[in-house]
Write a structure and sequence with these properties.
five-stranded antiparallel sheet, about 25% helix, binds zinc ion, 7 strands, 2 domains, alpha+beta, 2 helices, elongated
Length: about 120
Amino acid sequence: MSFIGICEYVIGVIHDQDIWYYVGETDSDGKKLKSKERYSSFLVDAKRYDDEDVLRWELEELPKTMAYKILEIQRCPKCKKEFTEHPALSREDNETEICPQCGVREAVEAYERYDKDS
Ligand SMILES: [Zn+2]
């Protein structure tokens, strides 16, 4: 694969149109979190798993009332940011996978170049 895989996974929770991240049952001090505190919209808060089996095992224990998704953390080679969304293909070489925001930026830049040249 051409993207820089970190081989870390997080649990995504489908919440309306958004994806939230599973934070875990306890905070960094080991204090038990209330059920609504166990989910965050920020990837930085997400509990990371480097072992997919451990993730699947914990996923089994989670309440079945919500829809979960296993997400792999990827790092964008362009902006170095971590993301879990479906990557975009860079227009520079048509094979490097970059984050969706950089994908949009490249598209806008290409459009502006085209606009200037014509
Ligand atoms: Zn990026």
